[in-house]
Each structure stands twice: as structure tokens, then as C-alpha cells.
Amino acid sequence: MDSINICTSSKNYSVYIGNEIVHLLTKEVEGYSKIFIVTDKHLESLHLQKLTQHLPEIETHIYIAPNGEHAKTFSVFEDCITYALQNGFDRKSIVLAFGGGAIGDLAGFVAATYMRGIPFIQIPTTILAHDSAIGGKVAINHPLGKNMIGAFYQPELVLYDIQFLATLPSKERRSGFAEVIKHALISDPTFLQDLMVKVNSLDSIPVHDLQMFLRKGMEVKANIVRLDEKEQNIRAYLNFGHTLGHALESTAGYGNLTHGEAVMIGIVYALQLSIEVLQLQFPIKEFTTWLESLGYKWRIPADMDFESIFEWMVRDKKSVSNTPTFVLLQEIGKPVMQKVDKSLLQKTYHLLQA
Questions:
Q1: Which residues are catalytic?
Q2: Residue 13's pLDDT is what?
Q3: pTM for this structure?
Q4: Which in 130, 158, 231, 327 has the greatest CB count within 10 A?
Q5: What pLDDT is recorded for position 291?
Q6: Residue 293 CB coordination number (10 Å)
Q7: Pair 112, 87: CB distance under 8 Å
Q8: Which domain holds residue 151?
């Protein structure tokens, strides 16, 4: 088992990552008045019993949310709050976010807002959630933008048992691993090289290697969050690939294009912009060939019009005065914030469109 210390201005806590470590939860939830598990329909049938068998004899209630981004709506959020009130949860209760990134976002936002804040623990079950489970960003979506209603609210603990990753379908493995690749690009050329040499299939990564890659990705995020908890400056680097990615995801309709699939397209777009704007020296052909071998479709979908996508990018949280601001790379491991002219955005968009 590996452990990472997350240090922020508001709270310090631990991340535990390893195989078959869910039993550690027993001690962590002792002393709370009630336990509020938020999970989804998929996890209910696959893994919920593995979690509940390790809970102490404390009154426990389980809320089953819709799968994926469909959990991150006003109506589901309100339903969670109503469920908590009806079952008498108080400020000594604890929320367990048992699922992927969407469940972590929903459950964390419920914890942040219920009675002005109650404790919660992140128990991620996807590769994607290795990114979202730490750092304290919790949110739901708005029809006009992803993660537009939310808070910075840190968990008490992150318990990342990688046994739960074994049942992930290939599509979800690709979605999650996009964030691992992102962490390598913004932090360390050696990390990126290790990925490109050792990972030939996302369905057959040895458990030891997978744990190592996930730990490295989480360490990258932990180091940034330590310096900038509330995204006043460098935390925005973690949004590399997300300006276009979120726009594509929103345009396709939440859940129709996975977060990681959209972000990977956004990563290739940001790399191409980095080459154009900052003269980044990067073997983009070799990189995209590797992505294709892993099953990624990195070209922008042909049916997505630039002007519509540009409107979404203007609404991005990093935009200033209606001008999209991108995270670009001067070199691997050296990200910068950069405003990019609309004409270049359009030219690059059409260059990469299918």
C-alpha cells in the first residue's frame, strides 16, 4: 500500500492506495452518528456489498444515484438533500462517496452544503477518479456549463482500493487513463516516456504498474494543490486539455462522450496549439500513433461546428474578458497560461477535425 499526504490551506489528509485495502474503512468511520453512502446503480450491483461488510454497526443509509454525469444534476442533488433530511442525518454524520468522478463530485457537494458542511470520505472506484478524488473540487453541472455549481471542500480521507478497477469496461479505462497521461505531460518527461514505453494496452496493465502510475498522477496533483488550493493560479494547469474537452463533452451531451475521451481530444488540440504558439518541441505524430494503439479517437468529431464549440470555450472558467485562456506547454513539464487568438483556434480546430 502507498500513502500520500495532501496538504492544503484548509485541511491536511491522507490518500491510501493499494489492492484490497477497503477494510481500512472500518476504523475511519467509527465515532460518527450515521453513515450516508452515495453510490450509483452500477456499483450497487458490482461492489457495494464489499464496502458495507467492512462498516461498523452504525446506522447506515444508501442513496443510489444515476450512473455517470446524469448524477450531477440539480434534481439529483436536491433528492440527496431531501433523503438526508428524511433520514435524520446530523452534523456528526459522514458521507461516503463510493464511485467514480461523478459520484465523488455529487456526494462531495452534498457534504459541502448539507447543514453548511459535514465530513465525507472519497472511495474512488475508477481510474478517472484518481484525479477528481483529491483536491476538494466538488460540483454539479448546469445546462450551460460543466461543474459550474460547486465548492472547494476537502474530504477527511481518500481510500483508493484498486481491486474495484478490475471490472471497469475498456471505455472507462480509456476515459480515466487520459488524466494519467495529462499528469505526465504537465509534470515530467520521464513519467510520459514510462507510460509510452510500458503501456501497450489499457486492459492488461500489471497491478503493480497501474498502482505506480496512479500514485504518480496523484502526487502531481497533490504538489499543485498544496500551493494553490482554490485555483488562483497554478492549479489551473491541471485543466490542460479541458478547455476544448469540456466544450466537446457539453456539446455532445453529458454522458454521450466520456470525460476522458473529450479531454484526450483537448490534449492533442492543446499540444498542437503549443507547437504553434510556443514552439513546443514534441513528437506529436508518435504520440497520436500511441494513443490510437490504446483505442483513443483523438480527432475532433466532424459534426461539431467550431463556432458552437467556441461559445462553450468562452464560458470556460479560465476565460478572461470573453477570450479563451488555454493551458499550453513550453516543454513537457512546463505548463503556462496563454490567451489564444480566435483565428488560430479555428485553424487548429479544422486541422484536427475528422
A1: 116, 137, 179, 221, 231, 235, 239, 242, 246, 259
A2: 96
A3: 0.90
A4: 130
A5: 98
A6: 13
A7: no
A8: 2-166
Kindly report the length of the chain: 354
Model pLDDT for residues 284-317, shown as the tens digit of each residue = 999 999 999 999 999 999 999 999 999 999 887 6
> In percent, how much of the chain has pLDDT > 90?
90
Is 164 known as a binding-site position?
yes
Examine the domain organization and report whether 282 and 311 are in the same domain: yes
Same domain, 157 and 177: no
> Residue 79, exposed/middle/buried by CB under 10 A (0-12, 13-18, 19+)?
middle
Query: Do 184 and 267 contact (CB within 8 A), yes or no?
Result: no
DSSP H helices in 59-134: 74-86, 101-113, 129-132
Which pLDDT does position 231 carry in this prediction? Answer: 85
Q: Is 104 flagged in the annotation as binding?
A: yes
What number of H helices and E strands is found in the chain?
14, 11
Among residues 151, 166, 181, the one where a domain terminates is 166
Q: Is 190 annotated as a binding residue?
A: no
Residues 280, 274: contact at Cβ < 8 Å? Answer: yes
Residue 161, marked binder = no
Averaged confidence pLDDT in the chain: 94
Looking at the structure, do residues 140 and 176 belong to the same domain, yes or no?
A: no
Q: How confident is the model at residue 326 (pLDDT cuts 50, 70, 90)?
A: very high
CB atoms within 10 A of CB 183: 26
Contacts of 90 by beta carbon, 8 Å cutoff, 6+ apart: 33, 34, 115, 118
